[in-house]
Design a protein that fits this description.
Mean pLDDT: 81
Strand content: under 5%
Order of helices and strands: EEHHHHHHHHHHHHHEEEEHH
Number of strands: 6
CATH superfamily of the domain at 15-254: Cytochrome P450
Largest sheet: 2 strands, antiparallel
Low-confidence stretches: 187-199, 356-366
Distance between the termini: 8 Å
CATH class of the domain at 15-254: Mainly Alpha
CATH architecture of the domain at 15-254: Orthogonal Bundle
CATH topology of the domain at 15-254: Cytochrome p450
Number of helices: 15
Helix content: 40-55%
C-alpha cells in the first residue's frame, strides 16, 4: 500500500476526492488533498515543502506549548473543589480536547487561537464545519457525480455564502500581515497583549507560506494560502483530537497499561509542559499512541486511486484500467490477512515487540 500511494506513481486520485473540493462564489476551489491535477499537486507540495520539514515543525512547538498552558488552566479550574459542596467539578474531557486541538491548530497556522478553550465552546461553529465536511466526504465519496448534481448545481446553490469563522480569521490575519509588511505573528495574537506593535519571533505556517510566496506566486496567491491554512487546521485538529481521545479511552480500559505509562513518565521526570524531544524518546508512550491509532485510525477513508493504463494486479486480483481502488484502514490494520501482528485489543507492549521485529527483519507489517 505504501508503494501504491507514492506521489511519484501513476495512480491518480479517484473521483471520490471531488466531493472535498471547496466551493466559493459558484466555483470549485482545489486544495492539496482534493486536487486531481498532478501538476497542480506537485506545485503545491513544492511550494510548502519547507514549512513541514522536521526542523520547521519544531519551530511551531512554542504555539503548542502556549495552548497546553491554556488547557491546563481551564482543566485546573474545572477540577477544583467547589466552594458550596465537597464534590469536585466534572466536565466532558473529549470536548475539551477538541477545543484544545482547534486552538493549537489556529496558533501554529496563523498565530492566534480560535478562542474555543476560552469560551469552552465551538466558537463560530468551526468544529462543526470541519465535522460536516468529513461527514459529507464519507456520505458522497462513492457517488461524486450525483454529489455534483445535488450540491454543486448552479441552478440550486445560493449565489454567495458567508465565510466560516476560520476562513474569516485566516483572511484577516493574511491581510494584516500583507499590509504591515511583516510576515511574523504579532505578540497581540498570543496570550501577551502588552505590545500590539511588536512581533513574536516564533514562526507559524502563515509566515512560512508568505516567505515561499516569493518563489511560488501563482500557487501561493491569497486564495491558495487560505486554502492551505484551512486544510491544515481541518486535518490537524480532527486527527489529533481523535488520537488523544482514543488513547485515553483505551488506557482507562486497561489499568495495567495505565500503570506502565505512569511509571515511565515518573521515571522521565519531565517538566509540566515537556518538549517534543523529551517525550519522543519515551518508548511506552509512543507505543500507546501507535496502538491507539491502529485500533482507531484518525484517517479511516479508503483513499481511492484510479488504476492506470494496462490495469494492475493487487493481492492476486486483476483490476482494469480506470477502476477506483481503495482499502479500508480498519481492515488493513485489523485483519490477519494483512498483519502478522493482528490483535483486536489494545496492547502497547505488542507494538514495542512489533517494532523490534520490523527493525530486525527489515519488513513492514502494514
Amino acid at each position: 500500500m505504501t508503494k501504491y500511494h507514492k506521489p511519484t506513481n501513476k495512480h491518480v486520485q479517484a473521483e471520490s476526492y471531488k466531493v472535498l473540493l471547496g466551493r466559493q462564489n459558484g466555483k470549485d476551489i482545489a486544495s492539496l488533498i482534493s486536487t486531481q491535477d498532478e501538476n497542480q499537486h506537485g506545485a503545491m507540495r513544492r511550494s510548502i515543502a519547507n514549512a513541514f520539514t522536521p526542523t520547521a515543525t519544531l519551530d511551531y512547538e512554542r504555539w503548542i506549548d502556549a495552548t497546553i498552558e491554556e488547557l491546563l488552566e481551564v482543566v485546573g479550574r474545572k477540577t477544583k473543589t467547589k466552594t458550596t459542596t465537597t464534590t469536585t467539578g466534572k466536565f466532558e474531557l473529549s470536548s475539551m480536547i477538541v477545543w484544545y486541538t482547534m486552538d493549537a491548530a489556529g496558533r501554529f497556522s496563523f498565530g492566534a487561537p480560535l478562542g474555543c478553550l476560552a469560551a469552552e465552546a465551538d466558537v463560530g461553529g468551526s468544529v462543526q464545519v470541519i465535522r460536516d465536511r468529513f461527514i459529507h466526504w464519507a456520505r458522497w465519496a462513492s457517488m461524486p457525480r450525483l454529489e455534483r448534481l445535488v450540491h454543486r448545481n448552479p441552478l440550486l446553490e445560493p449565489k454567495s455564502r458567508s465565510p466560516s469563522t476560520i476562513v474569516a480569521m485566516a483572511s484577516e490575519k493574511l491581510k494584516a500581515r500583507m499590509n504591515s509588511g511583516s510576515n511574523k505573528a504579532s505578540v497581540s495574537s498570543t496570550k501577551d497583549d502588552s505590545d500590539a506593535h511588536s512581533y513574536d519571533p516564533s514562526p507559524d505556517l502563515l509566515q512560512r507560506f508568505l516567505e515561499a510566496r516569493k518563489d511560488f506566486p501563482r500557487t501561493l496567491d491569497e486564495p491558495g494560502i487560505i486554502g492551505l491554512l484551512m486544510s491544515t487546521i481541518s486535518g490537524a485538529s480532527d486527527t489529533t483530537a481523535s488520537t488523544v481521545t482514543a488513547a485515553l479511552f483505551y488506557l482507562l480500559k486497561s489499568p495495567e497499561a495505565m500503570r506502565k505509562l505512569e511509571s515511565e513518565l515518573m521515571r522521565a521526570d519531565l517538566p509540566e509542559i515537556p518538549a517534543y524531544n523529551d517525550v519522543s524518546k519515551l518508548s511506552y508512550l509512543n507505543a500507546v499512541i501507535k496502538e491507539s491509532m491502529r485500533l482507531f485510525s484518525p484517517a479511516p477513508m479508503p483513499l481511492e486511486r484510479l488504476v492506470p493504463a494496462g490495469g494492475i494486479t493487487i493481492a492476486g486480483m486483476y483490476f482494469p484500467e480506470g477502476a477506483s481502488v481503495g482499502c479500508s484502514e480498519y481492515y488493513l490494520r485489523g485483519s490477519k490477512s494483512f498483519s502478522s501482528s493482528f490483535r483486536s485489543i489494545h496492547q502497547p507492549q505488542c507494538s514495542l515487540t512489533d517494532r523490534l521485529q520490523d527493525v530486525t527483519t527489515n519488513t513492514n507489517v502494514e
